[in-house]
């Protein structure tokens, strides 16, 4: 049975980073790079290791304004229960060893996290746009090849 995944309570509002706050003075993050011709991305790794990202059954990837980039998807409940919507890793090295990663991951740096339990990493608009564009070629989001790096602060 397929279900639409949207379990985590969302409270879009203040992020844990000056970049996401109105009038924040934090420097812009390093942006993700487009894939090389003929080498589509196989997955996306969202590095949220600078924040206290909480595991959730149905996390989202969001833009700084709170709008969803990805996460409300139809997925087999048994797969969701066994594997999760996304994989979680404690380091970038751990993420690259994950079976969902593949040989050519797109890497995005989270600028903050939010959601009802700080479960949703936030990426800059430029990375969100590139992520969706790259998925048109690689289909990695469709395959749930998504990994969040929690670091040691994750819950």
Describe the structure.
There is one protein chain. The chain is of the alpha/beta class. The chain contains three helices and ten strands; from the N terminus they run E-E-E-E-E-H-E-H-E-E-E-H-E. The chain has helices spanning 77-83, 92-97, 125-138, and strands at residues 2-4, 43-47, 61-62, 68-70, 74-76, 87-89, 105-109, 112-114, 120-122, 146-149. The strands form four sheets. It has a four-stranded parallel beta sheet. The chain has a two-stranded antiparallel ribbon with strand order 1-5. The protein has a two-stranded antiparallel ribbon with strand order 3-4. Strand 3 and strand 4 (68-70) form a beta hairpin. The chain is globular. The N and C termini lie far apart (29 Å). Residues 2-14 have low confidence and may be disordered.
């Amino acid at each position: 049975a397929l279900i639409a995944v949207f379990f985590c309570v969302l409270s879009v509002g203040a992020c844990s980073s000056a970049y996401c706050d109105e009038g924040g003075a934090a420097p812009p993050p390093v942006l993700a790079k487009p894939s090389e011709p003929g080498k589509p991305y196989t997955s996306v790794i969202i590095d949220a290791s600078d924040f206290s990202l909480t595991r959730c059954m149905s996390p989202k990837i969001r833009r700084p304004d709170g709008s969803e980039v990805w996460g409300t998807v139809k997925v087999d409940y048994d797969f969701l229960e066994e594997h999760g919507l996304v994989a979680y890793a404690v380091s970038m090295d751990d993420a690259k060893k994950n079976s969902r990663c593949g040989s050519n991951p797109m890497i995005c740096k989270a600028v903050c996290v939010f959601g009802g339990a700080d479960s949703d990493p936030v990426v800059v608009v430029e990375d969100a746009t590139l992520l969706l564009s790259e998925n048109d070629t690689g289909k990695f989001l469709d395959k749930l090849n998504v990994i969040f790096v929690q670091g040691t602060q994750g819950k």
